[in-house]
Amino acid sequence: SERLRFTFPRQRRDRRLCLSDFFKSKDSGQIDVVAFHVVTMGQSVSQATAKLFAANEYREYLELHGLSVQLTEALAEHWHARIRSELGFASDDSNELSEILDQGYRGSRYSFGYPACPDLGAQVQLCELLEPDRIGVELSDEFQLHPEQSTSAIIVHHPEAKYFNAN
Q1: Cα(167)–Cα(165) distance, rounded to whole angstroms?
Q2: With 0-12 CB in 10 A as exposed, 13-18 as middle and 19+ as buried, what is 119?
């Protein structure tokens, strides 16, 4: 049964894409699946970067901050790969790193606030669904995840789902 409903904008030009195009319609009577995730590096790294910044240790701050942001992205990609594997699509993944970095796999991972799903307010629904406070992640009044080194996504498994700008 339907627990939540997300709405997404449709492109006004180009292919007139919308994220919902990549899912079976409710009227089809067919069941489809969608995955969501929230990942984080946790509060410790945010505290460490804040301490470095406050101590005017800017180089160390920038290095640790940059590393932690990239590790968050790597963790998100790890779970995206795991989801593709559990859905039986891992064999579609490229073995070449350059192709993986260019979406050489089935589907895409879309984060709210980015071009295909620009409504950052949808984070509220995602958080209702996933309860990220269980892993120490909170949603601010501005719909930002805290700690900063956290990210969320809707994972679309359709083979034609690639990044696009809905604006």
Answers
A1: 6
A2: middle
What is the reported pTM? 0.89
In whole angstroms, give the CA distance from residue 132 to residue 110.
Answer: 17
* Domain range list for the chain: 32-156
| Element of type H or E holding 145 | strand 145-146
Which residues is 36 bridged to in the sheet?
154
Look up residue 38 and give its two tokens.
């929230």
Assign 3-state DSSP to the chain and report helix, strand, coil percentages, each to 5: 45, 15, 45
Class of domain 32-156: alpha beta
Q: List alpha helices for 102-144, DSSP H.
A: 123-130
The model's pLDDT over 63-89, given as tens digits with 9 standing for 90+, comes to 999 999 999 999 999 999 999 999 998
Residue with tokens 């559990």: 86
